[in-house]
Amino acid sequence: MKKIFLLTSIAFVMIACRNSGKEYDATGTFEATEVIVSAKASGELKTFTVNEGENVKRNRIVGSIDSYQLRQKQDELTAAGQQLDANAAATGSRQLDLRKQLASIAQQIANARHEQKRFAELVKDGAVPHKQLDDINNQLKVLQRQLDATRDQIRSNNRSLDEQTRAIKAQRQGVEAQKRQLNDQINNTKILSPITGTVLEKYVEQGEFVVVGKPLFKVANSNQMYIRAYVTSIQLKNIKIGQKVKVMADYGDNRKKQYDGTVTWISSRSEFTPKTILTNDERADLVYAVKVQFKNDDYVKIGMYGEVKF
């Protein structure tokens, strides 16, 4: 009986020593944020320069979709806007001409009144016949009627011109709205990488016809990567979001590369242990997934196995 107890104790000690000698607490596979870039416009793929495995920068233009018809429409809208500007200038010019005409008549009236006063003195002195003063008075009446008529015309024209100006302004705003919409459509013909990363898959080739929503390529953020590791319920008690941990990747020849990582996600549900995953407790059937983020140095690749030390 003592021998059995002794053997059992030795076995537990050996297991404990073996577990305590582990350089890791959990294992998993490396992942990255993947983005499928789709076409935002329809047309022929005029250029497309990405290749699988290539590194691309965020907002880099990697291709373009035919935008000839859109640019033709843009030129038409530009011409329409220029014509509306010319119409607005002509409207303002007509208002200015009427004001000039009004000022001219007012000046003539001022001159006639000056002559009226002068001739009144001459008639009083008998230097000129009264008829000349009557002619000036008649001229003043004619000029005053012209002034009143011009003012009425200006008021009428102003109402009409104001309506025209409002109509032109509304049309101009409509043209500008169409131009903004068209500019967005033209910008959508440019194919950009939304993130800095590595091109994983390429779905189309230059010269193909694409439609809105058609997948073009897949890119993954290979700078900020994750390892999805699995822990037991016992380990889970000592893990929290934001916790600093060590991430290890196999470097070959029994060498490992180590990275500083941060726990960013912990699953709220357990799952059966994946066949390819080693846990701290080999008897545990149910485990919890944990994601640890770390900064990659281009060595770690998606799908590689890694280890985590909490």
UniProtKB/TrEMBL annotation:
Keywords: Coiled coil
Entry keyword Coiled coil: yes
Coiled-coil parts of chain: 133-192
InterPro entries in the cross-refs: BSH_CzcB-like, MacA_alpha-hairpin_sf, UPF0194_transport
PROSITE patterns found in the cross-reference section: PROKAR_LIPOPROTEIN (PS51257)
Pfam families, per database record: BSH_CzcB (PF25973)
Compartments where located: Cell envelope
Source domain of life: Bacteria
UniProt KW Zinc-finger keyword: no
Annotated CzcB-like barrel-sandwich hybrid domain residues: 35-221
Name of the featured protein: HlyD family efflux transporter periplasmic adaptor subunit
Biological source species: Prevotella illustrans
